[in-house]
Write the C-alpha cells for this entry.
Amino acid sequence: MFQRLNGPQTLGNGRGFWIGALAVFAVAVAFPAVADPYDVGNFAYFLIWIFMALGLCLMWGYGGMLSFGQTFFFGLGGYGYGVIEINIGAAHGGSLAALVLAVSVAALAAAILGYFMIYGRIGGVFFGIVTLSTTLALAAFVGQTAGPEWTVGTARLNGFNGMQGMSSLQLPWFGRDIDLEESALYYFLLVLLAATYVGLRLLVNSRFGNVLVAIREDPQRAELLGYDVRRYQLVTFVIGSLLAGLSGALYTAWGQFITPSSIGLPAAAMPIVWVAFAGRSDLTATFVGTFVLLFAFQTITIYSEQSALVLMGLLLVATVLFAPRGLMVGVGQSLARYSARRGG
Amino acid sequence: MSGDLFSYVYQFADVFAFLVLSAAGLAIIFGMMGIINMAHGEFIMCGVYVTSATYHMGLPLVLAQACGTAAAGLVGVVLEYLVIRPLYARPLDSLLVTLGVSLIATQGTLVILGSTFPGIGTPLGSFDVGVYTFSTYRMVLFAAAIGVLGFVYVLFMRTGFGVQARATMQNAAMARALGVPTSRIYALSFGIGAALAGLCGALYAPTMNLIPTMGAGFIVEAFVTVVVGGASVLLGTAPAAAVLAIIRSGLNAWYGQVIGQIGLLIAVILIVRVLPSGFSGWLARRSAS
C-alpha cells in the first residue's frame, strides 16, 4: 500500500515527506481545539475548494487537458445539492444522499460533455474555450431564473439572488443525526480531503497514471503503443470534473447558499490561477499552493475584492512568464534536491 | 405577411452581424498565431468605453467609433509586445496569460471607473415593415459585418501584407527564411485582430449598458464561431456565422435569448463532433481532394 503511494509521478516520496505530511495532518486535527469557531469555519471553507483544484491538477497537469469548466461542474454540484436536498429533506441520511446524487449529476454531465469533446478530438486551446463557453452559458442560464416559474419540485433557483433554504449536511449516527457544522464539518472535510489526496496519489502512481502521463507527453506515440487515448482522457476528465462537483455540493452545504456568480467569470478563472501558480504537475504542490492562495485572497478581499482579483490576474501573468511550471513545484524540487544532497 | 418574412430575415441579419463582428478579430489572431485571445472580450469593452468617452467629449459618433477601434488596436500592439511575444511557441500559455490580462482589465476597470459608465442612445431611429417596427441601426450593423468580411478579403488576398501573412500562416520558418519579417506580421495581425474587436465594441456601444464585465457577453458567441469556423476568417468565420445565425435566430424567436445561447452551444458541440477542424478545415480538405 505504502509503496503504491510513491512513484515517479509525485514529488515527496521519501520518509521525511511522509513524516512531515503526518505532522501537518496532526496539526490540522488539533486545530479546532486551539482556534476559535470562526477560524475553524473559515479553514473548512478553504478545504472545500481544494477538491476542485486537485481535480484540475489531475486533468491539466497529468492529463494535459486544460479545462476552464471546473466552475460549471461546481455549479452543477452546488445547485444539484440544493435542489435535491430541499426536495428530499436532510433527515435519515437525506443530505448525504443529496451530496452523492449531486456529485453523480456532475459526473454524468462530465461524461457527456467529455465524450463529445474528447471523441470529437477537440484538443489544445479549443478544449479550453469550449469548456469556458459551456460554463458561461450555465451562468447566464441560472442568472435568468429569478422568476417563480423556475422551481424544481419545491426548490426555487432564484436567479442572481441565489438559491437558499437547503440545510447543512447531517450524518446519520446510530439513530440520531449529527449536524455537520463548525468543528464536525471541518473534521468531515479534513478526512474526505485526506482520502481524496491519498486516492489521487494512488491513481497517478498506478499503471493508469503512467499511461496518462505518457498521453500528455505524446498522444500519438501512446496511441501507437496500443493505448486507447480517448478512454484514458475521458476517465480523467470525469474524475477531475467530479471533484469540482464535490466542491460545489460541499460549498452549498457549508454556506446554505449559492449564486450564479460562483459559476461565471471571474470565479471560473480562479482554479486556473491556483493550479498554475502552485504547479500543475504535482498534487502536493497544488494542494499547498491552493491553500496559500485562498488564504492570501481572503486576507486581501477584506480590503477590496476587485483589487484581490487584479492581483490574481497579475499573479497568473507573472507565473506564466517567469515560472511557467509553477512556484510551489519549484520550491518542492529545490527541497528534494537539498535533502538528496544531505542524505547522499 | 411580408412583415413576418422580413422579421425572420432581420433577426438572422442581426445575429449574423453579431457573430461576425464579435468573432472576426479573434479568428484573425487564432488563424495567424494559433493563439486564442482570452482578453478578446476586454478589447471589445475597451472599444465600447473609448467610443462612449470620446462621444461624450463631443466627437460625432462615427469619429468616436474610430477612436474606440484605434485605441483597442493600439492596446493590442502593446500587449503583443509585452506578453504575447515571449510565448509564441507556447499557445496554451498564451491562453493563460491573456486570461490573466482579462481579469486585470475587468477588475481594474471596476476599481478605476466604477460599475457603470454613461452610455449612448441608439441612433438612426426605426422603420416599419408591415405591422412590425425595426431598428435602422441594426441594419447598419449588418452592413458593417459585410464590410468587415470585405476588408479582411482585400487585406489578405489583395495586398502585399496579405501575401506575407498567408505565407507566415502556412509555414512561418520558411517565410522567415525567405525574408518575411514574421514577428512584425504577428504584431500587426494581433493589432488588427484587437482593432476589429474594438470595432465590434464601438459599433455595439450605442446598443448596450456599459459595465466592465460586458466583454463576457460577447465571448461565448465569438468562441463558438471560431471553434466551428476554424482557422480562416473567410472560409471559416463567415459560413460558421451564417449556419449558427440560422440556428440561433430560430431558437431566439421561439424560446428566448438564453435558450438560444444554450442551443447554439449544443449545436456547436455536435458540429465539432462531426467536423473536428471546423468548416475551414473541411472546406480545405474538400478542395484538396
Chain B is about 80% helix and 5% strand. The domain at 2-288 of chain B is CATH 1.10.3470 (ABC transporter involved in vitamin B12 uptake, BtuC).
